[in-house]
Amino acid sequence: MNGVEKMSEKMSEQIEEKISKALDTEMTRRQFMKISGKGLMGLTVSASLLSLFGCTQQQIDNGEVATWAMPQGLLVVNAAKCVGCQRCEINCTLVNDGVASTYISRVKVQRNITLNGEHGLYGNKDWVYFPDTCRQCKDPACGNACPQGAIYANDNGIRVVDQEKCIGCGACVQACPWHMPTVNPETHKSSKCIACGACVQGCPAGALSIIPWDEVTAAAQEVHK
């Protein structure tokens, strides 16, 4: 085999390796898309993924951990770590709107929500905090309800609001099962999560984290080695 053939073979191996990694990443992404925006309760997670997520199996069993599939990685929400300080909400609006406002934040800190059937809205349990945000639905109710067609998927697959088209009618807010969009009372325009990561950067307790897909894939494959 001459030098050119060796170089060609090496390039083929490198390309094959890249394709293989891409396929593995997409497979992992598809798996997590099925449970995106839902709790992981009932799932047994490998030690490598638990370490990556920064949680325990007990927290998963308690329904305190949920994941959202995003273009840049997996958003992991751990209610056990959330202290309800709302800094995620404040940082979201500081970055995106230039003001500190929990009301128009694209991430919402829910209080005393049902996690595992024991916590209720008016139960006598201690308060439970849970950072919540847009699920980036494949068939978004918010977008379908918008009379102006102002909600669309950008180049990264994130559902965003076209501020020029939005008339602030609030149809998207009412249509969303989780009421994630919010109409700004000053601008009269709707807004929703654009997966910028500002909430993660603002969380001092580590309740929010975005894990790159290659790291998720690598950890998921550890159990198969």
Automatic annotation (TrEMBL):
Gene3D superfamilies found in the cross-reference section: 3.30.70.20
Superkingdom of source: Bacteria
Keywords per UniProt: 4Fe-4S, Iron, Iron-sulfur, Metal-binding, Repeat
Entry keyword annotation includes Metal-binding: yes
Organism, as annotated: Dielma fastidiosa
UniProt-recorded name of the protein: Fe-S-cluster-containing dehydrogenase component
Transmembrane domains' residue ranges: none
Pfam families per the UniProt record, alphabetical: Fer4_11, Fer4_4
Domain 4Fe-4S ferredoxin-type: 73-92, 125-156, 157-186, 187-213
Molecular function (Gene Ontology), one example: 4 iron, 4 sulfur cluster binding
